[in-house]
Amino acid sequence: MDPHIGREFDSPIYHEAVGQFDRVAKLMGLDDNIADRLRVPQKSTTVSFPFRHDNYAEVETLMGYRVQHLTTMGPTKGGIRFAPDVDLGEVAGLAMLMTWKCAIVGVPFGGAKGGVRVNPMELSRAELQRVTRRFTMEIINVIGPETDIPAPDLGTNEQVMAWLMDTYSQHVGHAVPSVVTGKPPSLGGSIARREATGRGLMFLLPAATAARALDPKEVTIAIHGFGNVGKYAAVAGHQQGAKIVAVSDISGAIYDSDGLDVDAASKWVDENRYLEGYPDADFIDGDDLFTLPVDVLVPAAIQNVITAKNANEIQAKVIIEGANNPTTLEADDILRDRDVFIVPDILANAGGVTVSYFEWVQDIQKYIWTENEIVARLREIMTRAFEDVHSIATRENVDMRSAALMKGIQKIADAKLVRGIFP
pTM of the predicted model, to two decimals? Predict the structure, then answer.
């Protein structure tokens, strides 16, 4: 990467995202002018704001970010994460990935991402609400239903989106449900949004396993992460007949080679918060999950967990990336050389933004779709996107990640060229 481009966003995730882009841009012969524009976000907002703790004696200054990578295709779209180590570069890299993701599945958004550097696990409900509402006011001139639409991400949820929507609505003087997605159904949220990413991911299981001559109803699956993505991926995989043998969270992993009772594990976490202590499976170190003797590995938690250190020890024949950027560039090369079939994050976890698009459309139109309609449309879009990407991979003799990026980048490059430059 040119050291003079994007140095404001210096972070491992941003470098990974740009590195992926540069490799594929060269493969495509992408025009240098277009490539330069797409390496850096079009708009970035950094804010600092005071946050008062419950004890009234302590006021902390928090940093917040909202990055809009691409405004060419329509409003921007992307989650807001609350995490103790989030920074501008991380947000910029994730916004770039969102751009490709939207283009691959064909929703009319550019990529965005936001974050607040705070540990939500250490906050009371009242503190979480104050952080959310103050951050919303700091970026209120940046977001909007026709400009930039936030959604939940790491450390945020439906309730946080409800507070964000309410704060925005109070400011403009009327209810604006379409300013966010991933909100509770009682406020116009999609009844299928919470499960969308995990469910959409598992819609790709039959085609992904077929690429390695595996029967989707007989495969064993290990899932790193048991939050919204991992849990619903486990539920959806189990419903399709696959055997979920391991899942993990921050406390560690549970493993049963005969298959886990996914419903029982989910109920345990609802009651005890963490998987640790679950009585009906072996408890193992979370990192050991990656090297289990399984057919399919689903990283569905955080970024950069599949690295050069563990890539050679992975036994899975198929990896379906539920998390954003879970595989480093070095690990990607190793796995490609080992002929592991990877369904990349920008395709595999696009079910979330797809159903977010449905939710936004419903809010704009004031028209609610049934859950069956949403699920059917999600399955159709995810399956078609996979087929398109797999066709490119076969035709160009490239891996699925390169093919997915080719599809997304070409669509955006075409749009930029036809719009031209102002003035």
Answer: 0.89
